[in-house]
Design goal:
Length: 208
């Protein structure tokens, strides 16, 4: 009976992993402080993404002082990153923004660097960006620039924006990263096993 009880505790702990996890992250540089301007090569500097929409808002560019932003995120067990969106606004000048994503435990880029041009006045139909309004651009990473990136599973990743260029080098932007995370359902066999154990326990209790 003792072994049965211990196994039951273990099973329900595993079953609970599907729903228990970190809350979605809401980070704003103007409130929480500036994000790193260099690659976060240590997991302690990473944000653990929760189920739902995780948002990171800030600014970056070449405006007097160079400000590149790097963001490290961790995806927990039984969680999947299903979509990544980068919303760009308040573009001060024409320029090029280099975006990239790298897996923390793998130095290879996924799938590689992507350089695209943002321009306040030119037609952007030929680029992967789509226009929200006059000076706001939306980068849907699930299609276009990083179409092979999502979904991402358990692990550590970092994303960055750097290598601004313009004439002159004074381009800056405001941005919001949005990372959508869902929980991965456990196999139906696990739930059936759990239901069976509950039924067996109730039957034994009734018999006693």
């Amino acid at each position: 009976m003792k072994k049965f009880a211990l196994f039951s505790i273990f099973l329900f702990t595993v079953m609970g992993m599907e729903t228990v996890g970190a809350a979605p992250v809401v980070y704003d540089e103007s409130i929480n402080g500036d994000l790193l301007d260099s690659t976060p090569f240590h997991s302690s500097l990473f944000f653990t993404l929760g189920v739902g929409s995780n948002t990171f808002t800030g600014s970056a560019g070449h405006s007097g002082i160079t400000d590149f932003d790097y963001l490290g995120v961790t995806i927990d067990t039984n969680h999947t990153l299903t979509d990544i969106t980068l919303s760009i606004s308040n573009i001060t000048d024409n320029g090029t923004l280099r975006l990239f994503g790298i897996r923390f435990d793998d130095p290879d880029t996924i799938p590689g660097d992507a350089s695209e041009t943002f321009n306040r006045t030119s037609d952007l139909e030929s680029l992967t960006f789509t226009r929200d309004d006059t000076e706001s651009l939306l980068v849907p990473f699930s299609t276009g620039v990083f179409e092979s990136v999502v979904p991402l599973t358990e692990g550590g990743y970092y994303f960055g924006m750097t290598s601004f260029s313009g004439t002159p080098l004074d381009a800056s932007i405001d941005y919001t990263w949005t990372f959508d995370v869902t929980s991965v359902p456990l196999p139906s066999a696990v739930w059936l096993l759990g239901a069976g154990i509950i039924g067996l326990a109730m039957a034994r209790k009734k018999k006693a």
